[in-house]
Amino acid sequence: MRIAVLANLKTNAPKYEGMPADRWDDLDSPRTPDAIVGVLQRMGHDAVFFEASILPPFNLIDRLREYKPDLCFNIAESHFGDAREAQIPAILEMLQIPYTGSRMLGLALALDKAMTKRVLKTHGLPTPEFQLFESADAPINIELLNEDGELRYPLFVKPNAEGTSMGANADSIVRTVAELRTRVASHLSRYNQPILVERFIAGREVMVGLVGNLPNVTFMPILELDHAAYGENHSGVYTNEMKTISSLDEYRYHCPAPLSDAQVQELQRLAAETFRATNCYDVSRIDFRLDANDNDKPHILEINPLPGLNPGYSDLCLQALAKGWEHDRLVGAIVEAALDRHHLRQIAMA
Q1: CATH number for position 45
Q2: CATH number at residue 180
Q3: At what angle do helices 87-94 and 104-111 cross, to 10 degrees?
Q4: What's 173's DSSP letter?
Q5: For residue 231, with 0-12 CB atoms within 10 Å meaning exposed, 13-18 middle and 19 or more buried, which class applies?
Q6: What is the CA radius of gyration of the chain?
Q7: What is the side-by-side strand order in the sheet with 71-74?
Q8: What's the CA gap between 160 and 183, in Å, rounded?
Q9: Which has the closest alpha carbon to 209: 322, 285, 298?
Q10: What value does the mean pLDDT take over residues 294-306?
Q11: Domain range holding 94?
Q12: What is the largest distance, in Å, between two alpha-carbon atoms of the chain?
């Protein structure tokens, strides 16, 4: 098969005045698409990487028409817009080119954290109470306040449509109305988008990765961040600094996480239900907090339908390794899931 690997490299991202330093932290280094291309070539495919931009000098549409791929391996994040991760899939569907991973609806939904939480609540799935702020002085939902008009519990403040824990650090935990409004105002100015405020769940943070499509999905061993190893500076938060490390030696985690069989089964059930409710396909990572104040009850934080695939230290890759899957097998399983979904087995075997 001819497979085009589509990604957005940090080195190719646009620059603009006043751009936050972490603006492109969710984009890839060349290592990731290069590794995926290598896997696909070892599988016997003709594989090439393309920068996922229709603008000059990348001209993706022209290059795809010339290359004529049978399938695209899509990990493109794109650059601008609150549904930016759906932009490349929209182009591929217009060109009638099959691709790996979730379609436009799932990608647009998952990037919008507040909308995802609304969908989860509709399906009866546990997610922390929340409010979306478009201004720092907006009235605060009554369910977030106590009888004295102060916050009922600590809240967590983060941009609504960003990845890689952008804007997430120890200061994101607020305990008073004044702190909340100050943090929201700062984020509104920095990220120029609505700000999500949700109940901060003090407890363990775990991730469930899966590959395949319901009902036939393969769950990866659950990964737990070792927050204690990072000290008090991180306050039990999976920060942007932790997600942008350059060496696995700097990452502290347990995989498989020390959980009971019953806990694993419940987390897998909730992960599968989240995957279904958000209309995702082929691969995803679902992030949870286990409430230390409520018998480790799991709360769904978000779903990432474009999980990192850096073979060195991306969470899903580490989970796959704990299962005994090298990077080749993980990438191959994603391709196999997409081939089955698109009914492309005959082309793959040609």
Answers
A1: 3.40.50.20
A2: 3.30.1490
A3: 170
A4: E
A5: exposed
A6: 20
A7: 46-51, 2-7, 71-74
A8: 14
A9: 285
A10: 97
A11: 2-101
A12: 70
Task: Answer yes or no: are the C-beta atoms of 221 and 267 closer than 8 Å.
Answer: no
Two tokens, residue 60: 């993706």
Same-domain check for residues 180 and 208: no
Query: What is d(CA 122, CA 160) in angstroms, rounded to the nearest whole number?
Result: 19
Separation between Cα atoms, residue 76 and residue 58, nearest integer Å: 14
Structure confidence at residue 273 (pLDDT) = 98
DSSP secondary structure, 132-154, as one string: EESSTTSPPPGGGB-TTSSBSS-
Q: Which residue has the tokens 């607020």?
A: 174
Query: Which token pair is 267?
Result: 């987390």
pLDDT tens-digit series, residues 171-195: 899 999 999 999 999 999 999 999 9
Per residue in 161-173, pLDDT tens? 987 677 778 889 9
Which of the two residues, 82 and 199, has the higher pLDDT score?
A: 199
DSSP string across 83-145: TGGGHHHHHHHHTT--BSS--HHHHHHHH-HHHHHHHHHHTT-----EEEESSTTSPPPGGGB
